[in-house]
Structures are given as C-alpha cells and as structure tokens.
Amino acid sequence: MDWIYLSPHPDDAALSCGGLIARQVRAGIPVQIWTICAGEPPEAPLSPFAEQLHARWEAGPAAIAQRRREDRDSAEVLNAGIRHFPIPDCIYRRSPEDGMPLYTTEESLTGPIHLDEVTLVQELASMFSTDLPPLTVLVSPLALGGHVDHRLVRAAAESLSRPLWYYPDYPYAVRYPEDLKALREARWVGVRYPIEGPDLSAWQASVAAHRSQISTFWPDLAAMQADLAAYRDSMGGIRLWRPLPVV
Fold it and tell me: 0.70 cut: is pTM over it?
C-alpha cells in the first residue's frame, strides 16, 4: 500500500520521518508527502512577526515559493512524491471579519486555535478525503509542542474516521519527552523502524534541502546532522505510534 505523510509545513515530514521515508522507498513502498500549509499569503502587507521570520529565513517576498522549492528538492532526495495544499501558513492567515493577522507572536503559535478558524478542520478533511485512496496508510503528526498548524492537521486527519499512524514531531519530540511518556501511559503502542547509514544520510540531506529553515533550530548543517544522528540513536531509529484498539 501507498503511504502518505501529512506535513503541516514544508520540512515537517523530512524532519520527523525522513529516514523512514528513505527506508520505505528503498524497499519499494510508494510514499507521498502532503504538505498542507504551502499556500500563498493573502494580498496584504506582512505582519511584523511574519517579516521577522522572513528575515531569519533570509527570504524575500517569494518566501513561500522558495519553501515549496526546498520541499520539492527534499522530496527528490527521498524519492518521494510531493503535493502542496493551498492553505497559507498560520503566520499569514487573517481574520475574514476584520482582516487582522491571527497569529502574531511566537507564543501565539502554540496558543489557542483562533475562533475564526473553526471551519478549517473540516475544510482540510474534505480536501484529504477527496484524493485519499481507501487502502493508503495515512500518517499524521502527533502535534508535540502544540503548534497550531500541527494541531489543525491532526484534527482534520482524525475527523476522517480511518486508521492512522502518528509520528513524533521532531525536534519537539526531544524537547517534550514527557509527551511521549504520556502516550505509553495512555495505552498507545510505538513501532520502531531501525534507520541504517544510507537512510540516515538521506534523512540528513532531505533536511539540509530546507535551507531557509536550518537557522530555526541549528547554527549550521553540521549541528543538524549530529542532532539527527543522536536522535536516531536515542530512539533506536524512528518510531510511529497509534492507540491500542478498545476491546
């Protein structure tokens, strides 16, 4: 069966699952990455917060086109398919009532989902269900760290009422180990996939393809490569999770 990884932003699937995607593709399993928040910003001036992020990314007005390009390059490294959805990143989304930006600080990214977005979960679910083959294995982010876009994607996937696997959002999985502990206590089961040298290298290269995003988490590429290797070693590979069925 095909596997589809839901990636809230360009880079999330590569960061969290790049080694596993590489392993699966080498084994002949067709894999697609569906990047959800890859749409163009509305035609309005960027908020100061969005401008600040663009400066950190060293990206100009075409930042989203650049991020989609990086996403395609990353998927090519992994030999995975790629699809971009038209939803803008939360840093660009605005209220349909007054046109004001909805998320304007780092803190707001992990705060409450704005009331103006109550219909977005169902809109996403409709987009997913339109093109999802019935036998596809669908993998959702766990939304560790609580980013609003990760939570929206997970909620949309869960509203489909179909079996899901979940991936720990890296690097938040390292920052919030108590969340993974809570999964075990809630009777979730994790399946470990060993990641050997070639797939670790592909994982590192797929993350490196997201050039604009490296500075978000690391001082340089060498630090990123070392951290991914350390994460692989600490987890014994990459783990996917799902809740045990209720009996």
Answer: yes
